[in-house]
């Protein structure tokens, strides 16, 4: 597999990476749609259940951008690149859209779950929490993508299980690269986002 496996890992997870960046942009585009997922509720410890940083806007922006990203990526089947992993001739648009939606929604569900535990550990909204801030969306994206791939295969829409074919068995280095390279990539992207004034903090 060589160095190409790194490119493969980043390509496969691009919908989740895009989804993870979506909430910050969505906040700029529609600042008024700021309904919190926790509805402003407080947990028994007196802290917010999730906090004001977790909105429905961010969640759906991530799911939508994930689906759109994979749909565009599926067009790679028209090229000579060996990167057409989101192209399922038999499933048409359903394959990439369902998998991309699952990667995007899963990324944001993972991020939301992280915030629940972050508040319980008394870390205020926006404070860094290494390595959970960096890996929450990887775990969430992988879990929902696995479920979506099982659904597509079970419904007979794809001939094989996309998740198993891309991440499991002899493809385990792809998973290892995602877990090791994502925190580094996350840090670099956030510093850039901070310098470009999209983010208030460089993490
Ligand atoms: N965001 C959002 N909805 C989400 C996730 C993020 O609107 N579901 C927006 C918020 O404006 C948030 C910003 O994106 O402040 C950065 O996201 P993130 O770093 O995930 O949230 P934090 O504010 O750092 O909150 P936490 O400490 O709970 O991670
Ligand atoms: Mg944060």
Tell me what you see in this structure.
The structure is a single chain. With 203 residues, the protein is mostly helical. It has seven helices and no strands. The protein is globular. It starts with a helix and ends in an 8-residue tail after the last helix. Cytidine-5'-triphosphate binds next to helix 2, helix 3 and helix 4.
Helix share bin: 55-70%
N-to-C CA distance: 32 Å
Mean of all residue-level pLDDT scores: 94
Approximate shape: globular
Contiguous runs where pLDDT drops below 50 for at least 5 residues: none
Q: Structural class of the secondary elements?
A: mainly alpha
In brief, what are we looking at here?
The protein has 203 residues and is mostly helical. 61% of the residues lie in helices and 0% in strands. Helix 1 crosses helix 7 and helix 2 (14-29) crosses helix 3.
Q: What's the SSE blueprint?
A:
Blueprint: H1 4-12, H2 14-29, H3 56-73, H4 94-120, H5 132-154, H6 162-167, H7 172-195
Bound molecules: cytidine-5'-triphosphate (CTP) and magnesium ion.
The site of magnesium ion has 2 residues, from loops.
Give keywords.
single chain, 203 residues, mainly alpha, 61% helix, globular, binds cytidine-5'-triphosphate, binds magnesium ion
């Amino acid at each position: 597999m060589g160095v190409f496996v790194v490119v493969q890992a980043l390509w496969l997870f691009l919908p989740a990476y895009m989804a993870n960046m979506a909430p910050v942009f969505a906040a700029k585009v529609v600042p008024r749609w700021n309904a919190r997922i926790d509805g402003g509720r407080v947990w028994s410890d007196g802290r917010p259940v999730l906090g004001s940083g977790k909105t429905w806007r961010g969640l759906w922006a991530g799911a939508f951008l994930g689906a759109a990203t994979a749909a565009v990526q599926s067009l790679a089947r028209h090229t000579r690149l060996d990167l057409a992993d989101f192209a399922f001739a038999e499933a048409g648009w359903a394959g990439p859209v369902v998998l991309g939606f699952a990667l995007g929604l899963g990324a944001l569900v993972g991020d939301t779950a992280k915030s629940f535990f972050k508040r319980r550990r008394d870390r205020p909204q926006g404070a860094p929490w290494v390595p959970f801030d960096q890996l929450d969306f990887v775990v969430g994206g992988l879990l929902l993508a696995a479920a979506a791939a099982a659904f597509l295969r079970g419904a007979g829409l794809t001939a094989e299980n996309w998740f198993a074919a891309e991440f499991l068995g002899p493809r385990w280095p792809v998973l290892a690269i995602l877990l090791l390279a994502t925190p580094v990539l996350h840090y670099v992207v956030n510093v850039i986002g901070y310098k470009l004034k999209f983010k208030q903090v460089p993490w």
